Amino acid sequence: MYDVVVIGSGAAGLTAALEAKEQGFSVLVISKNYPTFSQSCQAQGGINAILDESNDSIDDFVSDTFIASRKISNKKRIRKFCELSKDSILWLNKLGVPFTRDENNNIAQRRFGGTSKKRTCYSSDYTGLKIINTLYDTCVKNDIEFLHEEFLLDIAVENGVANAVITLNINKMKVSKYPTSNIILATGGYSNIFSLNTTNSYLTTADGLAIAYKNKAKLSNLEFVQFHPTVLKETNILISESARGEGGYLLDKNSNRFIDELKTRDEVAREVYKRVVKGEEVFLDLRHLGEEKIDELLPQERTIALNFANTDILNEPLSIGVAAHYTMGGILVDENMQTTIKNLYAIGECAQASIHGANRLGGNSLLEVIGLSREVVKSFNKDKIVCNIDIKKYQKEIDELMHKEIKVDFYKVKEQLSQILFEKASIIKSNSSLNEVLEFINEQKNNLKYMGIEDKSTYYNRNLVDFYEFKNLLLISELYIKSAISRNESRGSHYKLDYEYEDESFEKETIIENQDNDAFIYFEEIK
């Protein structure tokens, strides 16, 4: 039995594992893939921090973050988050993350959208990848145990206390349970409900949110999904905000700049989207930055453009579009990252920690996964627990799936779901369009009894895992739509044509409760 079981091996999971090990806990990290495949690797642009208070201040950092959140966040928690920033960077630096340096050999910083100062530390445009490699290396050096290719089936909750993790080994198709006194969900966000229009890895499928909800943990703010305004056209490959942070221009079909490129992402993405849905080309122009600056600070973007769009950004503007990128909603947690279930914690993008509100600032997500994931360890339960869960029912369910007749192809439904979500429930929507999507989702929920797996093999059955992931995405899609219908206003990333204004009565967080397998949605004052 381990003191701590971490689900997910992105930057949040690895950070929490390292800190728990440092504090003397026995730790197991469970992941359905490998750390170097995690979503954190794609956080290219950087991580925010106040390194020199003679040039910047905690007050300004708090103010920028709160303004971007459109008042749907907790200032006290934001302040704590900002105060952790310098120590988080120094900790990463000590571990060996190769941050880019300025001419005085200090850690360099660039300015991101919605911020008043140059505050984003970076490692050229490979920041997330460098952080992941460093964290994973450190975990290995510290003998932290990993189980890779292990899919989260469930968590055991008895008398309101989480006490075990139930998984499916993808290679052997074996169900196992791991009793523990502390479970950390670090499973990422839910942008993959837009599976055809997202920058996220196909592996990020909202498993943690779905499992938490099924076990009666509260979710929050699911209607706030951030779309990235610079994605390589027709590929969903991210072109980092560092490109605009270093001075890139956004041009319309007539080569005119149409927005301040350093406005917050919701505003920029909305303006790009308006042109894209009319069939107009939108371009990111970096030519004026020059070869030396591009090769030093944006080498990945140049390579991506050349390899996937046959465009040399030194000489040509790059055609771009928009795609779902980050989800501000998640599993509701308190200031200690504790969910509404005892002994169950959530960190990183799967958590709603009242920091990002309606709109996240670029560079704040990596700070969240480092800063708050180190803090979570402070409130761990040190008592041993008893787990009585019988896992036979999970194996029985899999056996039944192996013999089930299939009449509806869930892969096709997943594509249809993504398509209708993007067309009717993405950057700009209305209650009418949202209800059309909800009708489709309800129809597919009824069709689940006709869906299943074609592949009956008992070794590395990816078809089975895909089906579980699809069911999780379908559930979270329903909760996303119902949350969006409930919030009758426009705020940050949530923009409704029939309510094109912020309504003070909605300066509250959305709370989602599972009551008899039906979503009960209400609003709570920011605590």
What separation lies between the terminal Cα atoms? Answer: 36 Å
Strand content: 15-25%
Major sheet: 7 strands, mixed
SS field, number of helical segments? 15
Mean pLDDT reading: 95
Whole-number radius of gyration? Answer: 22 Å
Structure summary, number of beta strands? 20
Structural class: alpha+beta
- What level of helicity do the residues show? 25-40%
Mass-distribution shape: globular
Q: Poorly predicted ranges (pLDDT <50, ≥5 residues)?
A: none
Oligomeric form? single chain
Task: Give the helix/strand layout.
Blueprint (H helix, E strand, L loop, with lengths): L1 E6 L3 H12 L4 E4 L16 E2 L9 H11 L6 H9 L1 H11 L13 E2 L9 E2 L5 H15 L3 E3 L2 E9 L2 E9 L4 E12 L21 H8 L4 E2 L4 E8 L4 E2 L3 H4 L3 E3 L13 H12 L5 E4 L5 H7 L1 H11 L8 E10 L2 E3 L11 E3 L4 E2 L11 H12 L16 H11 L7 H15 L6 H17 L14 H25 L21 E8 L2 E8 L2
Parallel strand pairs: 1-2, 1-9, 2-6, 9-17, 16-18
Antiparallel strand pairs: 3-5, 4-5, 7-8, 8-9, 10-16, 10-19, 11-12, 11-15, 13-14, 14-15, 19-20
Characterization of the model:
With 527 residues, the protein is of the alpha+beta class. Helices cover 34% and strands 19% of the residues. The protein has helices at residues 11-22, 58-68, 75-83, 85-95, 127-141, 207-214, 242-245, 265-276, 291-297, 299-309, 364-375, 392-402, 410-424, 431-447, 462-486, and strands at residues 2-7, 27-30, 47-48, 109-110, 120-121, 145-147, 150-158, 161-169, 174-185, 219-220, 225-232, 237-238, 249-251, 282-285, 318-327, 330-332, 344-346, 351-352, 508-515, 518-525. Strands 1, 2, 6, 7, 8, 9 and 17 form a 7-stranded mixed β-sheet that branches. A 5-stranded mixed β-sheet has the order 18-16-10-19-20, covered by helices on one side. Strands 12-11-15-14-13 form a 5-stranded antiparallel β-sheet. A hairpin with a 4-residue loop joins strand 8 (161-169) and strand 9. Helix 9 (291-297) packs across helix 10 and helix 13 (410-424) runs antiparallel to helix 14 (431-447). The chain is globular and about 65 Å long. The chain starts with a strand and ends with a strand. The mean pLDDT is 95.
